[in-house]
Amino acid sequence: MKKLMVTLSVLCLVSSAGAEMIAHYDMNTTASGGFQTVPDVSGNGYDGSTRGDSMDISGGTANFPGDMNSPRGWIKLPDADVSLGLQGAVKATINWSPNDSWLIDYIWYQQTGDNSFKKSMFIQLQGADHNLIIETNDDNGAGTFEIKTPFDPYIGVDTEVMFTWSSDGINDGVGEIWINGAMIVDGVLPANKIVDTLADGVTLGRQDGVGNHHFLGSMDDVMLFDNYVPEPATLSLLGLGGLALIRRKKA
């Protein structure tokens, strides 16, 4: 029994260390319109940049105007470098002010660069139904796939949202939506729908290359992970707790 507890404790600690942060945008900078740098404070050097004539960052928050034509704004991330592949997570604190006429507000968007076969991943809010959605699709006739949950109670409130997904590219995987640290919903993600190659379009707050669907509201503390293990803090505590019980029994 003791050997089992040691094994489980070590596995929990190792698993919690499996998350690899790709980039962290804490928005503690000042930018307004045009093309200005949004620093990646993780140390990995994947600085983003503002786009649009009304995008602004101040007081630790990025403010998105959410207009289809003008003003508009989004944050462009380095192509391919921050592409999240077969497993990963996007985490952000958002304050959404929906404009139902636009129907969709994008938080995260990425797309592969193969013109004959494109895969895309969207993390979005739908204005009409007020749903929080992770969507994957491709342009080869396979359609789209969504995992979603209602977002009504959180409109206009600072809310931490996180999306995790995992697949080996052969077998179907699992996607999850987390809100304020709690896993709200999960579902199957078909392996052929997840972006599995380098992406040429990665943006926050907009579907890059399309003139609408800009996010309306604020966003900060955006973190991108690869090889993400959900609830690392809980797993760490479980592992440490198990080791503590073992030491206590020895004493």
Task: Walk me through this protein's architecture.
With 251 residues, the chain is mainly beta. The chain folds into 2 domains: 40 residues, no CATH class; 210 residues, Sandwich (Jelly Rolls). It contains 2 helices and 17 strands. The strands form 2 sheets. Strands 1, 2, 5, 6, 8, 13, 14, 15 and 17 form a 9-stranded antiparallel β-sheet that branches. The chain has an 8-stranded antiparallel β-sheet with strand order 3-4-7-16-9-10-11-12, with no helix packed on it. The longest helix is centred in the C-terminal third of the chain and has 19 residues. The radius of gyration is 19 Å and the shape is globular. The two termini are 17 Å apart. The N terminus and C terminus are likely disordered.
Topology:
Elements: H1 2-16, E1 20-25, E2 31-32, E3 37-38, E4 48-51, E5 56-58, E6 61-65, E7 74-76, E8 87-96, E9 104-112, E10 119-126, E11 131-138, E12 144-150, E13 159-166, E14 173-179, E15 182-189, E16 199-204, E17 216-226, H2 232-250
Antiparallel strand pairs: 1-17, 2-5, 3-4, 4-7, 5-6, 6-17, 7-16, 8-13, 8-17, 9-10, 9-16, 10-11, 11-12, 13-14, 14-15
Helix pairs in contact: 1-2
